[in-house]
Amino acid sequence: MLSIREKYGRYSLFVLIFVLGIAIFVKVVPFLGGLLGAVTIYVLLRRQMWFLTERRRWRRSVAASALLAEAVCCFLIPITLIGWMVAVKIQSIVANPREFIVPLKHLAGLIEAKTGYELWSESNVRWLLGYIPSVGQWLVEGMVDFAVNLVVLLFVLYFMLIGGRRMESYCSDLMPFDRRVSRNVVHEIHLIVRSNAIGIPLLAVIQGFVAYAGYLIFGAPSPLFWGVLTCFATVIPIVGTALVWVPLAGYMALTGAWGPAVGLTLYGTLVVTHVDNVVRFILQKRMAHTHPLITVFGVFIGLSLFGFMGVIFGPLLLAMFVYFVDLFKCKYLDRNRLCS
User: Which three-class secondary structure string do you get for 6-27?
Assistant: First the structure.
């Protein structure tokens, strides 16, 4: 039996940890993307860190610096270049609205000629012209936020690599499970994060190349730009790439290019969509044995909670929920069953 003083000390400590944790979490929310990015890249590099420090006997600071340079070259520079390409395109539209308004006016005229519905009204034009500056402001804020989170990512990743096994052991000891279950939880987290961190960019690249080839074949305008947007659209399951090629095919049809528009629609339906679904589910199933429904709904949940990094941590959150429910059922309801 615990004494009153021991109970007071235990519960007071719990309340202090909880209150301070909430206060700290609220303040680090703007840097959540950088923190989650550091965790993701750490999971990908942890084995290399162990190899360099335990097999090659490198100093931890030297090994961490080398892996940090690898992360910058292999992960961060390509993502930054792709994001910069899209940002420059949007910035050129904001700086020169006529470049955007003229083809949009032409498109509105085509829709009115085909359907009789007037889109290019004075109120709609005023709304559009008033909305363009806010897009530029959003773009600048997004670039600043990305730069800050990039610095946070590199800073946190360095110290995570330095901590290595000691950090993982400390986190494992804090889990409310025995050692075997804790190891299983850590292993499950590692598998899911690794599968999403590798599988989603790989799927995006495959989809981008497949869609880019279709845009070239059927003469879509600015095929490289739309191919890059298709890469980003793969983040959204089920509809994903259709958010790009369906409106593009519709635009081509309105401009009179009915043959290429029909061809692009068939190509998107029969090739792009099937490559998306097949490759996505194969990668998830083979790399982490994750049920497709967990991947699909996990991405939707993660995007609303964590932003872009939700494509990795949303499925992890849902998979951990399912795992803990099964663990509860095993330990407390099915007492005769061996828990994995």
Answer: HHHHHHHHHHHHHHHHHHHHHH
- Are 186 and 325 in a shared domain? yes
Both tokens assigned to 130: 């008033």
Expressed as residue numbers, the domain containing 282 is: 175-340
Name residues of the chain where pLDDT drops below 50. Answer: none
Rg over alpha carbons for the chain, rounded to the nearest Å, is 25
Three-state DSSP at 235 gives coil
Say which DSSP state 29 is in: G
Q: How does DSSP classify residue 335?
A: T
In the chain, the largest separation of any two C-alpha atoms, in whole Å, equals 84
Alpha carbons 83 and 146: distance in angstroms, whole number: 10
Residue 70 sits in the same domain as residue 202: no
Whether 275 and 206 have beta carbons less than 8 Å apart is answered as yes
In a domain, 14, yes or no: no
Per-residue pLDDT, 92:
67
